[in-house]
Amino acid sequence: MRKGKLMGYSHSSTSPKRWTQKLNPTTRVIFGKPNIIDTEIGIFNRASKSIDTCMTYTRPSLAVSLRPIKDAFLAAKRKGVRLRYITEINHHNFEDCKVLQSIVHELRHLDGVKTNFMISEGEYLAPLVQDKSEAIASEHIYSDMTQIVEHGRCIFDTLWSKSIPAEERIKQILDGVVPRETKIVNNQDEIMKHIIHLSEVSTGLSVVSNNGRIKLTYNSFLELFMKILEKQKRRETKGIRWIMRIEKDSVNVVKKFLRLGVDIRHVKNLAQINFAVSKHGLLATVEEMNGEGTVQNLLASNEGSYIKHFSSMFEQLWKEGIDARYRIKDIEEKVGIAEIEIIRNPVDSIARGWEMVRSARNEVNIMFSSTNALKRQIEMGALPLLKKASETQNVGIRMLLPSSDNSDQLIEQTRSNIPKIDIRTVSTGLETKITIILVDSKKCLILELKDDRQNTSYDAVGLSTYSVSPTIISSYLAVFESFWRQAELFEKMKEVEKLQKDFINMAAHELRNPIQPIIGFSELLYPKIVDQEQRRLLDEVILNARRLERLAKIMLDVNRIENNSLVLTKETVDIGKAVGYIVESYNRKLEENVNKLAVIHDGLKSINATIDKVRITQVICNILDNAVNFTHEGKIRVILKKEEQDGQNFLIIGVRDMGQGIDQEISSKLFTKFASKSDMGTGLGLFISKGIVEAHGGKIWAENNADRGATFSFSLPLKT
After folding, report:
1. 653-703: per-residue pLDDT in tens?
2. Rounded Cα distance, 556 and 417, in Å
3. What is the DSSP letter of 111?
């Protein structure tokens, strides 16, 4: 394809660019950076109303430093085209973004932007494969189809609504202000950073905890607390106030903290809640590993509303508490004290939860520990109970559920029974080990998950805690509301993801339609053309058409795998012979290789398996293509062997190469999309291979060889 004839426009080197809009809408892939730049400039030239751009944080530099692109922005702006731009503004692109502000009409910031595309009132352009470097990706998809443009517009508007003005973000960076945020932290290093930071910056710290937490603090964080107490002695801080339920086994540690200067009070009806709050932030334990052990999920927030809420909660508890010294005296003198209700029998726990739902008058909020927890309750007959509360008692019901493979099915089942219910899913990263039931902000039941593999709630649930304390209920309600907001964002991101998948599917289908006629007519013309230059050009046309055909097929395969819609056509095949044919084919291609690279067929030469022959051939070829690309000399071995695993026979197919081995940087995500660091291919072959193998009931894996290269293997179940 000649430069300048792409995308329906042409220009000469001696005259201004002249654009000719095609009458029929198209969707196609643009190859080559010069053609992509020309296409982008063409969109700017043809736009009359608006151009919206969404880019990762590395891209603003291109709009600022790449002269043709910058000039196109400015030219469009001069003729009245509205320019909007979304990116992540950080310290790396700070200066470029300040310049970009003067180029576009509106620049906005959005954390973690991972997509690149631009859209006018009638055209769409985006990289086909996301490029992590600052360079322009060499393959872009272009479309002027109304449906695709509208899809892109919907995605951009969704992201725009989530973004903040660039001025606000730039001020944050200049002022060194930490953006206000509330999040669940489940990485141990991040948890430690948050704890250390709050301890270091706080001029006064208010803590609420259980017995185990004060012991853990003394053993692990005493040095941090000592720094606050030393500042208190110099009257630089307000010191530390601590609320807990003091028991016999914590008396000695409490005494040590009292001697250090920590002000401690005892509250008898204190739920299993742990939080620390100062004017600088809030940390609240959502989940612990083992009671007194490491924090697994931590709610961290520096938002004023959360700080105010938990500070108010602390002050109320502080008023209700008694001086720790009096409590210690009572314990040492064996004076009894009322306890909150601990329910040890799972049967009683489940009965209490159902009783709470029956008594509801205003609202029921339920956060399930897992999808299995909801499934077990459905099987026990919980839906009719909730339906009655919703329809007969007019009770509002909100339900939180961790996302999983069968969560959509359970949600559909629940909604069909209870139309008015509001259900949201949270990401698996926010999954907890407790089920929380809150009724009318007056009753709270916390059910500990003992074993999620069990079939009944009676076997799955451990200890439970029931409380009617307003402070305790307020604490858990705050946790529920935090998860609810996280779930809202999660649902919106799923919507954006669906739009992207729909677009890819539509684009792939639209690409396939014109490809076959192009190939067919080109091949018909070929024998009739004598001129060698014309034949060379026709070869280019056929080559690029077949490349488009492969890309469209890859896009459709990815979409089918992600949507679990991959269809297999199985037949009984002598896979040993099939592999032999594949090996022969590759060796014919490699005959001219000066490095004498060869493919060897080792192991079983004949074995039957019930498979989709076309798909399994695709997997083997994908792996062999990788091996050939990364092996310059020597032998690549395709090994077939039979193994028994857990009483099931499997065929193991391995491809052993003599290349550079697997880069440790990508080894953990080798079979994910775009995992490859190579410029060869799309980075989707192994992802598709994984989907095909798993659809057959097998597994795929890879490992570096002890001497040189790597071995990629996959298993296929054999009929017994």
Report:
1. 999 999 888 887 777 788 887 666 555 555 688 888 998 999 999 999 999
2. 36
3. T
Highest mean pLDDT (candidates 61-65, 392-396, 431-435): 392-396
The residue among 669, 188, 193, 186 whose CA lies nearest residue 429 is 186
Question: CA-CA distance, 685 to 680, in Å (whole number)?
Answer: 11
Cα torsion 340, 346, 349, 353: sign: positive
The helix/strand/coil state of 295 is strand
Average pLDDT over residues 165-181: 77
In a domain, 81, yes or no: yes
β-bridge mates for residue 649, sequence order: 644
CA dist., res. 220 & res. 206, Å (int): 18
pTM of the predicted structure, to 2 decimals? 0.38
Structure tokens at 492: 């919106």
Mean pLDDT of 621-636: 88
| Encoded tokens for 659 | 């290349």
Are 363 and 399 in a shared domain? Answer: yes
- Decide: residue 440, CB within 10 A, 0-12 exposed, 13-18 middle, 19+ buried: middle
Amino acid letter for position 75: A
User: Coil, strand, or helix at residue 230?
Assistant: helix
Find, among 545, 553, 346, the residue nearest to 450 by Cα. 346
Strands, DSSP E only, in 302-359?
Answer: 322-323, 341-343
- Bridge partners of residue 514, in order along the sequence: none
Q: Are residues 26 and 52 in the same domain?
A: yes
pLDDT tens-digit map of 306-356: 888 899 889 888 887 888 887 887 777 664 443 467 788 889 889 999 999
Q: Are residues 420 and 514 in the same domain?
A: no
Backbone angles phi, psi at 271, to 5 degrees: -70, 170
Domain residues for the domain of 508 are 496-562
The string of pLDDT tens digits covering residues 360-407 is 999 999 999 888 899 999 988 899 999 999 998 899 999 988 888 778
Question: Is residue 367 domain-resident?
Answer: yes
Contact status, residue 686 vs residue 675, Cβ threshold 8 Å: yes
What angle, rounded to 10 degrees, do the helices at 251-260 and 324-332 form? 150
C-alpha distances in Å from residue 353, one per residue of 286, 356, 577, 688 = 21, 5, 62, 46
| Burial of 429: CB neighbours in 10 Å, binned 0-12, 13-18, 19+ | middle
Q: What does residue 436 show for φ and ψ, rounded to 5 degrees?
A: -110, 130
pLDDT at 602 over 80: yes
Look at residue 486 and tell me if it is in a domain.
no
Residues 519 and 589 in one domain: no
The span from the CA of 611 to the CA of 622, in Å, is 17
DSSP state of 128: S
Give the span between the Cα atoms of 73 and 67, in whole angstroms: 10
The pLDDT score that the predictor gives to residue 221 is: 73
Task: Determine the pLDDT at residue 78.
Answer: 94
| Closest CA relative to residue 190, chosen from 181, 206, 113 | 181
pLDDT at residue 264 greater than cutoff 60: yes
Q: Are the beta carbons of 669 and 675 closer than 8 angstroms?
A: yes
Is it the case that residue 512 has pLDDT exceeding 70? no
Q: Is residue 481 part of a domain?
A: no
Measured in degrees and rounded to the nearest 5, phi and psi for residue 241 equal -115, 135
Here the CATH number for the domain that contains residue 284 is: 3.30.870.10
